[in-house]
Amino acid sequence: MQYINGSFLDNFILMGFFNYPWLDLPLFFILLTSYIFTLVGNIAIILVSQLDIQLHSPMYFFLINLSFLDVCFTTTTVPQMLVNLGSPTKTITYVGCVAQVYVFQWLGCTECVLLGMMALDRYVAVCEPLRYSVIMNYQLCLQLASTAWLIGLANSLLQSTLTIQLPLCDHRALDHFFCELPSLIKMACVDTTVNEITLAVVATFLVLGPLSMIFISYCYIIQAVLRIPSADGRHKTFNTCSSHLLVMVLFYGPGIYIYMQPSGSSFQDLSKFLTLFYCVITPMANPFIYTPRNKEVKGALRRLLRKGFLVIKQKRKVRNPRLM
Description:
Strand content: under 5%
Largest sheet: 3 strands, mixed
Distance between the termini: 79 Å
Helix content: over 70%
């Protein structure tokens, strides 16, 4: 193979499930449907949380950040995947690949940290309900969310920069659906031990840090829930917290397997399916996990729809006085 050191390749070939070409059409429709539901569901949560004054609380501030992250997260990869699944030439430009690596790594790490921040918010809400609005004020929420975004950005700049500086061989075949760090590292023509160790160590800290915060927070939350005298109160608190826990399991589970498995591990096809799960299915599922179990969100949706119908009726009456 020709040795390429720092030169720009025209394109990368994204292999995907090249051994199973019959999957292209089903995957195309599954991804398209999931992407539409992701956009509609998460944008709806953002609009409802912003427009309804009763949802202007720390919990929904973090939920807006999570929904915005999910929209950006899927948009980073899914459109390119849809183009490739519907085309015989499954390629991505070098510049597009580099941009995808930076943005995907940034958003993925940010969501990992943000879920830990959301566990802290739930801890204060359940264990310190009387001081919740004082402790979790807007300034603190903004600082926590900004910290999550900045940690994700710093990690992306470190990991992605180290990876794209590796000299690549010119076979250009990337064994994945999109440009991701582990797959790019495997394409290098030099020893990648430093990159693999750096990726594993940073991933360990970024996973164990938020997971430790989540574990400690929910230990206190469980104790507080068990002390609630009324069954309705326990049920309401459990519903709110279980939604958050389910989202964390769906996100962290596949990510831990993909980024913390030993180098050269087999089951590459399983890794691809898990990657599809946490970067496509999980963002789509988040609105359905939070909304049906949350009476406040459902109530806000009903109020906004009622206002929308009233506005439409009033406009019709103005245009057609006979309806009055």
